[in-house]
Amino acid sequence: MSLPASVFGIQNSTVSLVVDLILLFLGVVWLAIVYWTWADARRRIDDPLLIGCATVASLFPFVGTIIYMIVRPPEYLDDVHERELEIQAAEARLAQFGMHLCPHCDTEVEKDFLRCPNCLRRLKDPCDNCGKPLQPDWKVCPYCESEVVGMAAPVARRGRRRREPEQTVSVPPSDLV
Known about the structure:
By secondary structure, the chain is mainly alpha-helical. It is built from 5 helices and 4 strands.
């Protein structure tokens, strides 16, 4: 009993060569797809564990890569970073022109507004002497040179605000009567 000349037991050498070349081509394409999945995941995903999972999933011929293509992030990390930089630059340009954002509702407000016209929250306190808006950390009014007393605490940005626990005041029972 002799061993078959090819993987599928084909006796014709030409057909056997064609089958072997097709299998070699499919193997090379499969390895190229695994490499493409790894390279694409590195450009789109920040977490090394997820990159490894995507690459391991692509080891299942063709199915893993198709699943990766369905669930992969739509943007490259470089594009996300570039968009964030553009947003920061646009906010800086707005600040140069005197336009700022309300820390509560992100509506555009001018730098001399005392209240937000959208959410009606107080942005700055007025000077007691001249009525111009004052920054919370100023100790003297730059417009009329009067001393600033009793300024409110600075307004925090939306992302940094934390809710402080409410303090309860205990009243002794003797004071209730």
